[in-house]
């Protein structure tokens, strides 16, 4: 179904190459995105809009029109100044291991510019273009007992998972401490264990794409830093219960002891403060007057000798 187009030398020697070429064309490769963009050709003496035509070829193939039939995007005679191959359906762009060369020209009626040919690229290979892998997406962190559980999705979906795959690294650090790196992991769910409870940890996740056809790997961008506080683990909880109990008990003991010593030390003072002028209790006075009365037994019954001291205070 691929449609052949005129070859390079034919275009270069075409007498109708009268328009200026599109300027500053560039290919953007970010995650799975493949976008060719350029600057518009401005003609002062034309009322009709300039349109653009994009063609592509693989390693040793002929040139093909970038149209719905061939690659699934309409980039023939378009007024827009970009061609987004990612929007192509169903292929969603060129296969990532294909060696692709793109070219572009401006057209106006029967007139057209010379072709501008881009350097070839192979998405998985750095090629002559820079390809950027973004950070993992939808990062969710659940603080656990002395741990953090991190879940995320890949930067993009890999079409052919038999030759290329992602692995992940977590950069993490306790706030104010040095950074640690854990990885590589194949899973999209990572658990950081053995963290200190009740501490704030910050982390960044990073993807790395491995293409094992030629041992190529691309290190992705770090995700934004986010911080989380760990929770208590079971042993810490027990420790805390014990600590709080022991603490409260000791505090009470100390308070009681302090009171006791204060009372002992300042007994005289306390006596002085609470003292009513010394007087012989009425009953004793009566007893002294008449020692035959059985008052002493009655007094002995409801007060110990020690209490007598305090009785005199009260
Ligand atoms: C390309 O164009 C040149 C000159 O117009 C012609 O001689 C040649 O046969 C063409 N090649 C192909 C593959 O069409
Ligand atoms: C614009 O004008 C120039 C001469 O001023 C002429 O050479 C050129 O062909 C014109 N372009 C169009 C698109 O009419
Ligand atoms: C990709 O194709 C171009 C020709 O279109 C060639 O020069 C280049 O070496 C190829 N790259 C690889 C890695 O095969
Ligand atoms: C491609 O898009 C242009 C306008 O952007 C439109 O004029 C043209 O008919 C479209 N071609 C196809 C084959 O859909
Ligand atoms: C490439 O990776 C896939 C998936 O991990 C594995 O099944 C396959 O054997 C690997 N191929 C080579 C050539 O290493
Ligand atoms: C990361 O941070 C930058 C700047 O603070 C912000 O623009 C961007 O949207 C953030 N990315 C995510 C995935 O939250």
From TrEMBL:
Example GO CC term: the record gives: plasma membrane
One Pfam short name: Tissue_fac
* Keywords, ordered alphabetically: Membrane, Transmembrane, Transmembrane helix
Under the heading CDD domains, the entry gives: FN3
Which molecular function GO terms apply here? type II interferon receptor activity
Membrane-spanning regions, if any?
241-264
Q: Where is the Fibronectin type-III domain?
A: 135-233
| BP GO annotations | defense response to virus; type III interferon-mediated signaling pathway
The UniProt entry, under PANTHER family, shows: INTERFERON GAMMA RECEPTOR 2, INTERFERON/INTERLEUKIN RECEPTOR
Question: This protein is called what?
Answer: Interferon gamma receptor 2
Which species does this protein come from?
Answer: Nomascus leucogenys (Northern white-cheeked gibbon)
